[in-house]
Design a protein that fits this description.
- The chain is elongated.
- It has helices spanning about 30-45, 55-60, 75-80, 95-100, 100-115, 135-145, 155-170, 175-185, 200-205, 290-310; strands spanning about 1-5, 15-20, 45-55, 85-90, 115-120, 150, 190-195, 210, 225-230, 235-245, 255-260, 270-280.
- The chain is built from 10 helices and 12 strands.
- The protein is α/β, with parallel strands linked by helices and about 300 residues long.
- Bound molecules: flavin mononucleotide (FMN) and adenosine-5'-diphosphate.
- GO terms for molecular function: ATP binding; FMN adenylyltransferase activity; riboflavin kinase activity.
- InterPro entries: FAD_synthase (IPR015864), Riboflavin_kinase (IPR023468), Riboflavin_kinase_bac (IPR002606), Riboflavin_kinase_bac/euk (IPR015865), Riboflavin_kinase_dom_sf (IPR023465), Rossmann-like_a/b/a_fold (IPR014729).
- Belongs to the ribF family.
């Protein structure tokens, strides 16, 4: 898969079949749409293209700085790559771009830049300045500029929209089982290991504190989770706490992981950590001794769970 940072720098050898969307989560519903795209490309000897925008239109237009996404833009690219796409175009969503008239968008972006022979799009897709154009307009533009339009049905689209919303809600609630089932893969958090309060080692459980750069990344609700990571080529399991560490007087939210059967310096390293299941909610224990007891139980639970994955 080739990633292009703008439609204007896109190049392809052949005509293309294009779909447009955010595809946040790249979940089981999205995969069906992408499968239609890659199949159509194969049958027609075209190249498959996903056109996506960044930042998310809602971040720019509604000043909705607080919108949270299931995937960072890097994760989205990595997940789409696994689906056998030929091209991912991450076009910058700017104020100027948002003001483009529908016909200019079709001619400049879809036809001239992306060489679209076919566009696969939701029945309710709206585009162009103030989202004035709809799928019927797109079909007319198709006749004018020589591309086909394939409509994704209401039912199929609702399945996709519902699962994106359901995944976000499930993640907020810490319902990892549900979120992972809709995603079709374990939700992941990626970031750099930073210094914490240096209490972990004293408690007998050193924890790698993860700093996630992308402020729009949705962090699952507070709680203690069984996790998995890949550190220097090896699978490492662990237990993660997402919370404010109230027992030791913490205030700010941290994401910290104790890795099992592991003992090396992780400061400054980049980790991608998959969340596999929830153990319990974070609690404000009356003493540090009680917190340590709880962590010992978390470890027993986690090791049993991990063992069950291996049989
Ligand atoms: C598996 C696990 C469970 C935890 N559960 C709680 C909890 O229920 N309540 C709490 O206040 N802190 C909890 N913590 C956070 C500890 O207080 C934290 O690891 C400790 O403050 C070390 O912080 P440091 O890495 O900044 O040194 C948990 C940590 C881990 C790894
Ligand atoms: N098994 C382990 N799991 C997590 N971190 C470990 C482990 N063994 C060693 N470390 C190292 O210890 C650091 C955490 O120690 P800790 O006392 O909790 O300090 P901090 O408050 O800076 O996180 C990690 O960032 C990592 O470099």
């Amino acid at each position: 898969m080739k990633t292009h940072s703008s439609a204007h720098t896109f190049t392809s050898e052949k005509g293309t079949v294009v779909t447009i969307g955010t595809f946040d989560g790249v979940h089981i519903g999205h995969k069906k749409i992408i499968a239609r795209l890659t199949e159509s490309a194969q049958v027609n000897q075209w190249e498959s293209v996903v056109l996506t925008f960044f930042p998310h239109p809602r971040m720019l237009l509604q000043k909705d700085a607080d919108i949270k996404l299931i995937n960072t833009i890097t994760e989205r690219g990595d997940l789409l790559e696994k689906l056998g796409l030929d091209h991912l175009v991450v076009h910058p969503f700017t104020i100027d771009f948002s003001r483009m008239h529908a016909e200019d968008f079709v001619e400049e972006i879809l036809v001239n830049a992306l060489h679209a022979k076919k566009v696969i799009i939701g029945y309710d897709h709206r585009f162009g300045r103030n989202r004035t154009a709809n799928i019927d307009d797109l079909k007319q533009f198709g006749a004018q500029f020589g591309f086909e339009v394939e409509e994704i049905s209401k039912q199929e689209l609702e399945d996709v929209a519902v699962s994106s919303t359901k995944i976000r809600t499930a993640l907020h609630e810490g319902d990892i089982d549900k979120a992972n089932a809709y995603l079709g893969y374990p939700i992941m958090l990626e970031g750099n290991v930073v210094y914490g309060k240096s209490l972990g080692k004293k408690l007998g459980y050193p924890t790698a504190n993860l700093h996630i750069q992308e402020d729009y990344k949705l962090i699952p609700g507070q709680g203690v989770y069984v996790v998995r990571s890949y550190i220097e080529g090896a699978i490492v399991y662990g237990m993660m706490n997402i919370g404010t560490n109230p027992t030791v007087g913490g205030v700010a939210q941290t994401i910290e992981t104790y890795f099992f059967d592991f003992d090396s310096d992780l400061y400054g390293k980049r980790l991608s950590i998959e969340i596999l299941c929830k153990i319990r909610s974070e609690q404000n224990f009356e003493s540090v001794e009680l917190l340590i007891e709880a962590m010992k139980e978390d470890e027993i639970f986690s090791r049993t769970y991990i063992q069950s994955l291996k049989v």
